[in-house]
Automatic annotation (TrEMBL):
Pfam families with a match to the protein in the record: ThiS
Family: Belongs to the MoaD family.
Organism phylogeny: Bacteria, Bacillati, Bacillota, Bacilli, Bacillales
The keyword Nucleotide-binding belongs to this UniProt entry's keyword annotation: yes
Keywords of this entry: Nucleotide-binding
Keyword Phosphoprotein attached: no
Protein name: Molybdopterin synthase sulfur carrier subunit
Amino acid sequence: MINILLFAELQEEAGVDQIKVDKAGVTVFELKEWLLQQYNLTSLSNTMIAINESYATEEDRVKDGDTIAFIPPVSGG
């Protein structure tokens, strides 16, 4: 089981701030594709990715017990 954290507009699109799912062993890219299909998260393409609070790439594999965060760009003034 993995825990997916969503922030900002991703939370709004999904209607939840976190998702628990049995997807251990997939790449971050495959996880993003699944999220796009399941939750129609169109903002995923512009996000930073972290696994267990360390930045990750789309090629990284997710392990059982991992927490994956998708962090949209931050804007401010």
